[in-house]
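Record 1 of the preview.
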Amino acid sequence: MAALAVAIVAVSTSAILVRWSSAPSLVKAFYRVLFTLALLAPVAATRYRDDLRRLSPRDLFFASLSGVALAVHFATWFESLNWTSVAASVTLVQSQPLFVALGAFFLLSERVTRRTVVGIGIALAGMLVMSLGDVLTGATVTGSNPLLGNALAVAGAITAAAYVLAGRSLRQRIALVPYVTVVYGVCAVVLLALTLAEGEPLTGYPTNEWLLFFAMALGPGIFGHTVINWALAHVESSVVSVSLLGEPVGSTLLALFLLAEVPTPLTVVGGAVVLAGIYVTTTARNTE
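->
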């Protein structure tokens, strides 16, 4: 639980680090994944060499699918932070449990309980309030194009759900480090290809940018998502899922104090409704 608490704090810094960097979104995403991979690679090569060799073609295929989905997740979410507020972006991207439940129902024929349906409905209502409320009321909004930014954040949530679904069976059979090494490797290659296709420069950035790239990998990458994956082996998944609701709250508070970014009242209300819907959805399995 202590490790999980540290991880939630670490992932809450992700949006702030992304905002502090002035590099192109794809470049930031690529170096975050590349540096995370570089930190994990020595452990994978020394302690998990045999595990990597035992991966079957089928395992490699689904791990690669996870990596592609993760790359699109990072690309869309990082870009969303250029257009909308931290509060809206982080809350909407954290809605991935809703899309995991929907994907599991349509693709894996998993049972969806009444409580899950209610939770998804609540969260969707909150997402509509966050995305359209300020625009329809004419309120002053944060970000140059909140509708685009919010849509990109939702796309990031959908691709994060695809990442989870593609790797769900693998994580039950494969140790954490070999799994994320393959996933991060594929993710880095995809992000590199997208960066080159867009013609974005990979070099020539000042020292502070490289420090931010490394901080994204060490903080949200290693101490955040990797520790969360480790915690899943020691804490009930429902506890981890609910704990992740702390990320939008933490990111919003950090944005308030470090970026002087004050969310609008409708963003706060809509965000609270989204988080309530996610809570209902993620706790549905244990209550019915």
